[in-house]
Design a protein that fits this description.
By secondary structure, the protein is mainly alpha-helical. The chain has helices at about 1-20, 25-35, 45-60. It has one domain. It is about 75% helix and about 0% strand.
Length: about 60
Amino acid sequence: MMRLLCKLRIYFRYNLERFTGILKDEVVEKINLLMQEINFKPEDRKVVVAARKLLKRHELMKNL
């Protein structure tokens, strides 16, 4: 389980680094393929689900 969490952390770090321009898309695609192979999704972490709910609520409030 710990190895899977490490891979998930890498997934988030790589996506952040792609967003900031540090990494190229090809590198992030490799981690995305690995995530698919092990059948692991970002939503498998409770904090991701909670953060996305909070973001959605914030976006709704902003549109009022």
